[in-house]
Amino acid sequence: MKIGMIGCGVISRQYLDSFDKLPDVQLVAVADLDPARAAAAAEGREGVRVLTVDELIEDAEVDTILNLTIPAAHAEVDLRAIAAGKNVYSEKPFAVTTQEGAEVLTAAQAAGVLVGSAPDTVLGTGTQTARVAIDEGVIGMPTAAMATMVCPGHERWHPQPDFYYVPGGGPLLDMGPY
């Protein structure tokens, strides 16, 4: 799978750290509205090209778009990628409205491409360990799950907490999907 990553902000680090561990997944291009962030994401990664968003979406080498943009841009980027015949994996939330989510799913089905979305970093060890435990029957058939999160405030730990306090961002869109 050849990945083009759109959005090189804070969450991109977790994905970038995982690519080297996945032999069937190759990051081939990155794009960000801030070209310096895209260049920093590509730095030290052989063969990873820095492109504009438009160039990346239209790039023939890319078969899957990893959409790490802000939540308000998820549906727009996903729909553009789908129209270009790309599979899409989007960071959470899948969309900010039910209507946008339905549009993405309808477009993907019509185009014959796959779409997926986090509510967790699917490439992380926690999710991969859980997947193995389920596949190997270690825990039986899951029927329910529950999680709790307690946080003293994003400004105490997050490298860019301003995002949590602007329209189109915030704890509900960022942490709610968990």
TrEMBL record:
Say if the entry is tagged with keyword Oxidoreductase: yes
PANTHER family per record: BCDNA.GH03377
Residues of the Gfo/Idh/MocA-like oxidoreductase N-terminal domain: 1-115
- Which InterPro entries does the entry link to? Gfo/Idh/MocA-like_OxRdtase_N (IPR000683), Gfo/Idh/MocA_oxidrdct_glycsds (IPR050463), NAD(P)-bd_dom_sf (IPR036291)
Record keywords, A-Z: Oxidoreductase
- What's a single GO MF annotation on this record? nucleotide binding
The molecule here is called Gfo/Idh/MocA family oxidoreductase
